[in-house]
Amino acid sequence: MFVNVVLNEFLRNIDRILTYRVPDDINNLKIGMRVLVPVNKSFVEGYVINLLEKTDLPIEKIKPIMRVLDDITVFDEKLLNLAIWMRDYYRCNLSESLQCIVPSGIKNGIKKVKKVTLNNGYLDDVSITSRQLEILNYLKDNGTVLLSDLVKDLNVSYSTVNSLVRRGIIYVYYDEVNRLKMPDYKRTDKLVPTKEQEYVINEVKRSIGKNVFEKYLLFGVTGSGKTEVYLQLIEKCIEEGKESIVLVPEISLTPQTIERFISRFGNLVAVLHSGLSDGERFDEWRKIKNGDVKVVVGVRNAIFAPFTNIGLIIIDEEHENTYKQSDFKPRYNVKEVAEKRCEIEKAVLLLGSATPQIESYYKALRNEYKLLKLKERIGLELPEVEVVNMSRELADGNNSIFSRKLYKEIRENLMNGEQTILFLNRRGYSSFVMCRDCGYVPECPNCDISLTFHANEGKLRCHYCGYNINTVYVCPKCGSKRVRYLGIGTERVEKEIKKLFPRSRVLRMDVDTTKTKGAHEKIFNEFKNGHADILIGTQMISKGFDIPNVTLVGVVLADVTLNIPDFRSGERTFQLLTQVAGRAGRGSKPGRVIIQTYEEDNYSIVSAKNQDYESFYNEEIRYREIYMYPPFTHLLNIVISGPIKNDVVNCAASVYNLVYKTINKSEKKSYNKVLGPSSAPIERIKNNYRWQIIIKSSDRGILQNVCDVLNTLKLHRGIKISFDLDPLNL
Ligand code: ADP
Ligand code: ZN
Ligand code: ZN
């Protein structure tokens, strides 16, 4: 017998798939097994992807497999098909997409520990020392225990233990352990669903367990009880003997979220997140593989959980950016992968959000997804939202970063012992310029995104198309000279608060304060337990914070998000404001939200104030169509990088020509536009210069052709090219 093996190597743009002979002493070789094979003069790891009865290759040229590395398969044929689909859809390598599927801890293997237990058949009348008697009593009380625990608890030596083992009074043996300790939670019963919930649950239930591929979008406002819907659908799946995967965004996978699933389904749940060590992740993976659990709750890559009989895949907060792997290959979007997996498994896909991604809602309106709605918050009023125009504040002589209104409300909260959240999305680029009098921000006339300020050359640049102008010092709209670069961040907010309210207890949560492991959790708990009055933070605090005593949320400057140079900035702003506003008034007291901005008429802000998704969607989709952004086109972002700026710029120019030729070769009639080359929003990272070319096309196939050309390019002098098909961040 022969096999095809794909080599597990990541340095090339093209896979090496080679044929090997299976020697007689290896039997039971299956697709999905990890093997060691000879390549040239060394040995390389690879995966069996095909079993062959015969081959046309000359027999004497075919080398035998050296060794099988595990006694289990690391993927089955259905997952292999998913990986092959990913290779084709994202134009990556098979070895790269398989890398997503294979658990990283597999090389460390299973952890075994020594356990010790009593031999129930031993005779009581044998002579034993008092130390030995202590051991026997301990085992009588505790049953089977870890040897290390026994030695520690009783402070006995291993030789004392061994003497009992030698006489057959106790046994010591190796056993597998699961490295992840699951906390014990109180069991909770299911809630009686509301009318709205019941309708949604029944709709989806009709497809579960029927081996049909169905797609649903659940649009439910924050606090409308989406999670309870998920729980009852998972229960149905379990009843049908099917498995479920629940994906949540990284920052939402808090102990509270995990608790909600474990308290309902107990040890039928496995958890996969990036906080696990390789070993812990592998142990969870084995529980799934062995069929010990029926539900997986996890972040993005939990989509590859090795279930074999999936009934339901849920993606909560489906609009979240973290569902796209943007930083490294394969740059996949887990919503697409989940959809494919459901198609392969004939399962149900359920996307849920209070602010669905524009593309998702567009699909739902075109019946590609079945649209389900939850319109009411359970037992809570929506908070009262007020927008404060900051240019009016300035005109009235207040040039603090806090409006008089917000100042007054913070003070009131402090006096009443209620808690306040102050939100400022400083992450990313605050490098846009703005007129402090009227809020004017210079934009690109071609792309309708804000221009990025480049201090060193005194220019404002569009990083999509390269359009640039000298930086403005006088506002073209109102003539004011107070046009400046906006550099306000969370740290500044903290300083101001401490100045204004010296006795307030303040916490800050952003990338800088949460670098260490567990810091996020610690700040959260401190705030939740009432050890601080005010929490200042970036989008990290926009989700999952369910703290009853928070009655005030202040958005310090909504414009920061609004002017991120990305065509999705309007959508992001609306999503963030909606999420943040949802943090106020979760308890018995009503919530107030104050949004500070220079652009009070912007539709993202107006719709967020009115908590009106549909009107936001209608405006946004119109704008997307006018400027031909997704869902009306697909995008391809090509980044050319290298240590020498001139080389990067030259390479970008030749890539541009190549791209242009490739697109023109296509015979199909489609909308295509090549933007750039232009410097990336952050032009230099770790001494690498980065330039980018963005292509918009109504035909994704054309973009795939461009990727294929890029994959075969010969590059020199430290230049690298990476690309992202359907990017979420530009
Ligand atoms: P979402 O996920 O839509 O933001 P949650 O699932 O967190 O909403 O529900 C909000 C709150 O309402 C939670 O405290 C939850 O326990 C409660 N809840 C949900 N469904 C019901 C129900 N049918 N009866 C009573 N309380 C419910
Ligand atoms: Zn102005
Ligand atoms: Zn432009």
Automatic annotation (TrEMBL):
Alphabetized Gene3D superfamilies for the sequence: P-loop containing nucleotide triphosphate hydrolases, PriA, 3(prime) DNA-binding domain
Record InterPro entries: DEAD/DEAH_box_helicase_dom, Helicase_ATP-bd, Helicase_C-like, P-loop_NTPase, PriA, PriA_3primeBD, PriA_3primeBD_sf, PriA_C
Q: How is the cofactor bound?
A: Binds 2 zinc ions per subunit.
Q: Where does Zn(2+) 1 bind?
A: C435, C438, C475, C478
The prosthetic group or cofactor this protein requires is: Zn(2+)
> Ranges for the Helicase ATP-binding domain?
207-374
The signal peptide annotation in the UniProt record is none
Q: What is its EC number?
A: 5.6.2.4
Give the catalysed reaction(s), semicolon-separated.
ATP + H2O = ADP + phosphate + H(+); Couples ATP hydrolysis with the unwinding of duplex DNA by translocating in the 3'-5' direction
Gene Ontology MF annotations: hydrolase activity
- Superkingdom of source: Bacteria
For this UniProt record, the keywords arranged alphabetically read as follows: ATP-binding, DNA replication, DNA-binding, Helicase, Hydrolase, Isomerase, Metal-binding, Nucleotide-binding, Primosome, Zinc
**Binding of Zn(2+) 2, residues:** C444, C447, C462, C465
Q: Where is the Helicase C-terminal domain?
A: 468-629
Q: Which SMART domains match?
A: DEXDc, HELICc
Q: How does it assemble?
A: Component of the replication restart primosome.
Family according to the record:
Belongs to the helicase family. PriA subfamily.
Q: What does this protein do?
A: Initiates the restart of stalled replication forks, which reloads the replicative helicase on sites other than the origin of replication. Recognizes and binds to abandoned replication forks and remodels them to uncover a helicase loading site. Promotes assembly of the primosome at these replication forks.
Which HAMAP family does the entry mention?
PriA
Q: What is this protein called?
A: Replication restart protein PriA
Species of provenance:
Thermoanaerobacterium butyriciformans
